[in-house]
Queue: 3 jobs
Job 1
Amino acid sequence: MALTIGIIGLPQSGKTTLFNALTKAGAPVSGYATSTVQANLAVVQVPDARIPPLAEIFKPRKTTYATVEFVDVAGMGQSAQSSQEKKEGLSAEFLGHIRNADALAIVLRTFANENVPHIYDSIDPMRDLESLNAELALTDLSTVERRIERTKKAAKSGDKKYQQELELLKRLQEALNELKLARQLEFSQQDLAILGELFLLTMKPRMYVLNVSEDVLGAANELLDKINAGENVSADTLQGELKGLAQVALHARTEGSEFVAVSARLEAELVELPEDDAREYLEALGLPRLGADRVIQVGYRLLNLITFLTAGEDEVRAWTVTKGAKAPEAAGKIHSDIERGFIRAEVTRFEDFIACGSFQEATKRGLQRLEGKDYVVQDGDIAHFRFNVGK
Ligand SMILES: Nc1nc2c(ncn2[C@@H]2O[C@H](COP(=O)(O)OP(=O)(O)O)[C@@H](O)[C@H]2O)c(=O)[nH]1
Ligand SMILES: [Mg+2]
């Protein structure tokens, strides 16, 4: 089961360019706004600095990274001119692609380029975000209202369950009507079960990908780091792209959403270069690594995922589990038999293993632990599972 991040945004914000940078795939990038919905889909590796040193030690036949799936979907902002269409929300085709996404990467354009028209004829990422949010909220509103009709009928039976459901739906309706995001509301455990059936777009975890001009990339990253660190930044004192950037990032901070600055076009060009050349170029710009890598890593975090590792001569591999997963569930990612016949996990922290150089040494120094079925797997655990599948 691949977890999917949907890349959405206004036309010409750089979605497909970002997608290309993320996947190195040659999905077509057009200089025109297309009116039809197109979706590009790709599974990408999650960069993981722990894999190369492990591969160095084990010299395995195979190394395998964790993956996430990205889907680049056009189709928002198409009805920007028509308030009637806007009321109806997004097209069925767009929704088909985006409903099942586990999180959203919302691309917001801060770069100016006369050759790349903007549907609102000016650069203002906060306005764009509000417009996108309105589109998402109105789509959710119609989902909720359809459900209200259904639930009302069911509630006539007198079943208290439906009464509670109706209360939740009314609360959602009210918030969405005010163009608030569903995820800003508070929910009980019971609410969440119902929400799980609604696939609301404004419930999905989100990250903002600010697509900046390459000449402000360095300054943009510095600014976002400050905002991330909780420093006081006033958007009003800033000029040009940085102003819009700060507005969105400060908004994201109050919302608890992630944000990343990239220059999609630069990145799409860099991934075409040999790796060493690309690294040199990045270093010359004073950037530690590709924004695309950060988008993948932040996306992975957004999905509430962690990585545990297995290491041996056959394979060094990163595995994905949901945060909070216990040892048998992690074992089940490898094979259902290992989960079924789970006895215990031998766990070594990645850092400890690297310090020791081998499992024997780690055991000798008491750094390899035996964990039972209630052990909650941690990011960076190297695990070996003992299991027994009896007759
Ligand atoms: N100057 C500049 N142009 C960009 C950047 N990202 C995308 N573009 C250009 O904007 C146009 C639209 O990009 P595209 O990825 O097709 O946008 P989409 O409609 O959101 O998929 C293309 O001509 C891109 O080359 C960027 O970071 N800087
Ligand atoms: Mg596109």
Job 2
Amino acid sequence: MFNRFFRFALMALLIITGNILSGPVMAEPAIDVSSVRLGLHEDKTRFVMEMSAEPKYDVFLLADPYRIVIDLPELDWRADDSGGRQKGIVQNYRFGLFKKDTSRVVLDVGGPVTILRTVILPPSSGKPYRFFIDIQKTDEVSFQRELAERRSNLSERSIALVAPEPPAPSRKYTIVIDPGHGGIDPGAIGKSGVYEKKITLAVSKRIHKILSKNSKYNPILTRDDDTFLSLRERVTFGRQAKADLFISIHADSIGRANFRGAAVYTLSENASDDEAAELAKSENKSDLIAGVDLSVQDDTVQGILIDLAQRETMNFSVKFAEMVTPEIAKSGMKTRGRSHRFAGFRVLKAPDVPSVLVELGYLSNREDEKILKSNTGQQRLAQAIANAVDKYFETIDP
Ligand SMILES: [Zn+2]
């Protein structure tokens, strides 16, 4: 099902971009990246990647916070990832898959910067191709000018333009399962080093599998591999699929290591408590982490007011949220106090799709992490959520 949708989306994308291919698409040999590092020079900071071939690339700037984004073809990252990530004006950087066929590097910089030059040197004296970018501090006005000049050539993937296949004649409930994070955005990192994006994908696939066995349901995953999706793309996906239910799966971390247990969240302008507010803030950072250019989006989602339709949607979201917590409690995972909480999660902003965000547990807590990493723990959590789905549809449509 998902593959079919994905092929359809990809086809549409190719047609939209005007690259109609006559034959089968041949995969280009991947380019290996063998080294990534920062260098500090007298008046500039240099970011260097060593790679096996010369890639095409696109560099642009983002404000709020200040970032430099480098888009490249899909790369095979073999670089040692343990070196220092802070030098000169660069405060941190990350790299990974942004979307199919596009790898991305995001450099977080401490203030307005200018890109002095980007160069790819051919192999010489035993060194492979070297890509480098030299960065220097500048003033705000020059930064804004350069930002406008270097607009991203990449728009978001065009799922917004492609509807998934329409529901079968005998009406099934469409449930969109949304594994949080992915690709360049690892999400939270557990005590043992496990990435949230892996846990969310593993549990989501299990939920998908359980629901697929019931002919009442048409479950769809927003992603079924390690790719990044912006929050807006996730929301759009749910709306395009005309989902009856949207479930975003997460397993975050929090500063306090003794905090543990699952919790279920719905959208609200005001947060139920400080912890929910903190969590929404960190979840909403996903787009910043991946360098999504929010300034070029015609953001129908960001500005949505809670209108009547949404209020009705909200009632259904809350109804489902209240059914999830007791099921998770039965699965053996601890749950946190009140049955559900609420805050301003951007991923829950579809006005017409009942949406919840499930935090399966905290990766910052050792016991929770153990459950989240284990097959049994994952299966139990998936089953608990599937049980809640059953209960929910029995209630609203007996
Ligand atoms: Zn998360």
Job 3
Amino acid sequence: MPAASVFTLPRRARLLPALIARHRDDGFLTPASVEAVARELGIPAAEAWEAARSSHEFRFDAPAGERACAGIACALHPGYRQPELPAGCLFRCYAPPASGDEQPFPAEMVREAGPLLGPTDRTWAGLERARRIGPAAVLDAIEEAGLRGRGGAYFPTARKWRAALRHGTPIALVMNAEEGEPGVFKDRALLCLRPERVVEGLAIAMEALKPAVTIAFINGEADPAAEAFELALADSPIAGQVLLYRGAGGYVLGEETALLNAIEGRRAVPRPRPPLPVDSGLFGMPTVVNNVETLAAVAVILREGAAAFRALGAPEAPGTRILSLSGRVERPGVYEVPLGTPLAEVLDRAGAPAQERAAVLCGGPSGGFLPGGLAAQPVLPGRYHPTGAMLGAGGIVVLEAPGDIRRAALTMAAFNAEQSCGKCTPCREGTPLLLEALGGNPADLAEDLLDAIQLASLCGLGQMATGPVRSALAFWPEVFS
Ligand code: SF4
């Protein structure tokens, strides 16, 4: 396989790496520096500027003061002060309040490990088996295991791979390690502590899909995770075959097509569907985007077999899931549990017993709040409550209610308004209205505004932005009156 290089992709795929390099050198971007990059690459300056402005981690003036986290776990901490330079989340929700650069994920914050987070033997047994049995049998094994994507949508992985393969044309494979949801830090845990398992899963996916290009897209701030992954990759059988790509932020990059636009050097906004990425994704190629945890599960399946994978979890959702727990718990961190485990059991073990657990936020800014007494559902894909709470990417924040609810709901509403990419009107105009009404007079919040945002927004960010607001108002209306 030829060595991976950004030069094998169309020229505009060099835009984001070039902007990131400029940003690192200068500390911020200016119209002149963006124009210079655009000129070098032969891209219209307006398009380069548009791409730069859509990336939330870029600054456009000299930074003044230290960046500190304004995410939910930090905002609830007694030591929290409104930061001079607020960050939506610094992903150290297990040790609030957080400031400065990202740190390696601490091993002691792995509270419960299973096949994904447990130790690796540093062999490539899963990849060797994949090579022995061939692509068709690899796909069968993934299908038999019942693996569903762990990014939050839970789409069957084998079905996604087959959908891309059926075109018979060159495929792009993208590992999504953008992980931009406040309160979720499990991909960072995997990449920092078990990078070999993720690399092996990626290698197996490459074996099955024979992609023309493979990209590992890692959050632009997650340097320790990127370094650990890069080291493991360099020491692996797929060394030199994967193009490393760093992001520049944006919760919307959780939407696959926005991520592909970012790689293509375009404004990082979702594309209308259809076409689906598996039909026409990166530069028009059928494209498979898989989350880090999904790829780690692929490695487990090829090593231990589909039956062993299915032995843990629920029949409709086999395997384990890594939960990120933070907020008012004694033992925050990551918990790898079999799917189907009652959430209340995990919360008890984490030190948030039922009698003290007044509320939980499930699913972050796209999910919703639940009174602690209702947090008894099994850990399974889907909604926990019609007002919004859901498993999503596995972020669980424990709260005191009603004391924390107002601040937590405002933090989520502010995050969604800030992260709206602005492409569609219901989300662009609606999410600031949600924030304004929540902070002022929620009685002004017409049900049809909530419905319009939920039903008419283009992507999940807008469609699910109403969850934290609806659920907070449904369960604790007195807090906002
Ligand atoms: S819903 Fe929001 S984030 Fe999604 S495309 Fe519309 S404006 Fe952008």
